[in-house]
UniProtKB/TrEMBL annotation:
Residues 138-203 form the HTH luxR-type domain. The modification 4-aspartylphosphate is found at residue 57. This is DNA-binding response regulator. It comes from Jeongeupia chitinilytica. Keywords: DNA-binding, Phosphoprotein, Transcription, Transcription regulation. GO terms for molecular function: DNA binding. PANTHER family: DNA-BINDING TRANSCRIPTIONAL ACTIVATOR DEVR_DOSR (PTHR44688). The keyword Lipoprotein does not apply. It holds the Pfam family Response_reg. Residues 8-122 form the Response regulatory domain.
């Protein structure tokens, strides 16, 4: 069965046997799995949209799973993070939950239990991820606007008419009309109301 790019999992654990076993387990459940022997290997080529879920061992040589988690929190998006813990690591994992981790599972764990946990985590993350991706798309469109177009757009969003905007900026009405048309085209909307709704839904203030 082919892997699904929307079900991509990173497994970060210094235990070769456990890492390989988890990689095999999730690959048999139609997940695209990428194992890493340590935190540094993951961070060397990491982007927040690359994985649907991260499985992190709490205790590893060098950077620990908890330290890696704090690094991951610095990125603009945090995918679901599930910690693999030993009995003595549970209090630390609970603390990580307060900082935004999704869950933890204690070793030794049942295969079905860890698969179910990851599946739930990915499903719960779906809406949040979709909203983040939509916001990124809108921000990319905003980046395509010139400084003058952004200036005109702000006035459009306050409800100013073309003639008023022309007076405000000491430019011709024809120039305002050209800017308005380009703004709507670049933002992929047809009206000022659609533009306002797009920015509101993406939770973007300009």
């Amino acid at each position: 069965m082919p892997s699904n790019p929307n079900r991509r999992i990173a497994i970060v654990d210094d235990d070769d046997a456990l890492r390989d076993a988890l990689a095999w387990l999730f690959s048999t459940r139609n997940h695209d799995v990428q194992p890493f022997p340590n935190a540094e290997a993951l961070l060397a080529d990491y982007t927040p949209d690359r994985f649907s879920c991260l499985l992190l061992d709490v205790r590893m040589p060098g950077m620990s799973g908890l330290e890696l988690f704090q690094k991951l929190r610095e990125y603009p998006y945090l995918p679901p993070v599930v910690f693999l813990t030993g009995h003595g690591d549970v209090p630390m994992a609970v603390g990580a939950l307060k900082d935004g981790a999704t869950d933890f599972i204690e070793k030794p764990f049942n295969d079905n239990d860890i698969v179910d946990l990851v599946e739930r985590s990915i499903a719960a993350d779906a809406l949040k991820r979709t909203q983040w991706q939509a916001k990124n798309a809108v921000e990319a469109r905003l980046e395509s606007l010139t400084p003058r177009e952004r200036e005109v757009m702000k006035l459009i969003l306050t409800g100013r008419l073309n003639k008023q905007i022309a007076d405000d900026l000491s430019i011709s009405m024809k120039t305002v009309e050209v800017h308005r048309a380009r703004i709507l085209e670049k933002m992929h909307v047809k009206t000022a109301m659609e533009l306002a709704a797009l920015l509101r839904d993406a939770n973007i203030t300009v």
